[in-house]
Backbone:
């Protein structure tokens, strides 16, 4: 977003507000920030961080019907407001249409009818949107969230620990065929049949309730680590990596949410506004690439699209964006050395026409 005047910024994956606080520091013109996250731990950390950065923090509750309610008043004129929304980015359009973004953005009423005149059919028109997909380091490093195969904890993996199917329920109740399908499609794991078979065999001995029980059930399919490296090498990939990724994606419906949210995010941009998306594995990146090509009016990809990406099979009749990154931007060697988790990151950016 360098060189872009950002008055309204939407962080679809707020986390502990690392990106959001950096945006406040680097864009003094920024008046309204909206952050989405289902994780209550993230809300507590982000609230403190953004308040310390000088923003008035306004918690936003979202009902099942999509109606929003504010738990505090926005900043006075000239102040900076950070709306922290207890929802994932899949409800971005609905929520933004109801928030008083100001500064040329939405002037929505409580009925959800956003203000127009900003060049977007959604009636919102924000300057910048960021989606940093996948799970955060905070979630991985918290053992009792169940995301990590390196730390023992309850087998949960839900972004919102209070709702939906848990990983424990999935591995203990789904059929071998369904578990195998998840591992194959969402983990791109070539040993999916054997892993699914071992998981079912292990749960017949006793329920799989912890992350380390699942790691032991997965074993070392194919022998050793993935990526050709040894443990401790940069190329080493733990044998459970792809299976944990697959189960997490299935539990949270991540890929479907991404495919559904990208067109809405583009629609919520003002002309000249930018959407930046950071992905961490090929499944996410392909969805973003397909969605961006579709919105740019480009010919469809030759790749086979999964069912949740079928709307991207053909180009839009009229381009809505231009793609600013012909190829994804990759982390530098210095960044990878400082943060090994960034090694698989890819950044793609589009600009609204």
Residues:
């Amino acid at each position: 977003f360098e060189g872009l005047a950002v008055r309204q910024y939407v962080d679809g994956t707020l986390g502990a507000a690392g990106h959001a606080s950096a945006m406040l520091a680097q864009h003094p013109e920024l008046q309204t920030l909206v952050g989405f996250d289902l994780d209550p731990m993230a809300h507590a950390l982000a609230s403190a961080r953004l308040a310390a950065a000088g923003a008035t923090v306004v918690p936003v509750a979202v009902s099942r019907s999509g109606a929003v309610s504010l738990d505090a008043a926005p900043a006075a004129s000239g102040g900076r407001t950070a709306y922290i929304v207890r929802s994932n980015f899949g409800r971005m359009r609905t929520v933004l249409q109801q928030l008083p973004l100001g500064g040329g953005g939405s002037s929505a009423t409580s009925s959800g009818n956003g203000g127009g005149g900003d060049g977007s059919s959604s009636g919102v028109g924000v300057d910048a949107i960021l989606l940093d997909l996948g799970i955060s380091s905070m979630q991985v490093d918290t053992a009792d969230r169940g995301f990590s195969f390196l730390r023992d904890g309850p087998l949960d993996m839900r972004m919102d620990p209070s709702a939906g199917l848990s990983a424990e329920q999935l591995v203990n109740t789904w059929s071998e065929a369904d578990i195998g399908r998840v591992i194959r499609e969402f983990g791109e794991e070539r040993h999916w049949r054997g892993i699914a078979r071992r998981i079912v065999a292990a749960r017949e001995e006793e329920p799989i309730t912890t992350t380390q029980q699942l790691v032991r059930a997965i074993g070392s399919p194919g022998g050793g680590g993935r990526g050709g490296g040894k443990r401790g090498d940069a190329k080493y990939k733990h044998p459970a990596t792809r299976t944990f990724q697959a189960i997490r994606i299935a539990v949270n419906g991540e890929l479907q949410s991404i495919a559904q949210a990208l067109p809405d995010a583009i629609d919520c941009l003002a002309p000249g506004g930018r959407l930046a998306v950071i992905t961490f594995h090929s499944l996410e990146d392909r969805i973003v690439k397909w969605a961006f090509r579709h919105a740019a009016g480009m010919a469809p990809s030759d790749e086979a699209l999964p069912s949740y990406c079928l709307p991207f099979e053909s180009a839009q009749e009229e381009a809505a964006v231009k793609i600013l990154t012909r190829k994804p931007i990759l982390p530098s060697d210095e960044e990878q050395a400082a943060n090994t988790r960034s090694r698989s990151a890819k950044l793609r950016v589009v600009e609204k026409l």
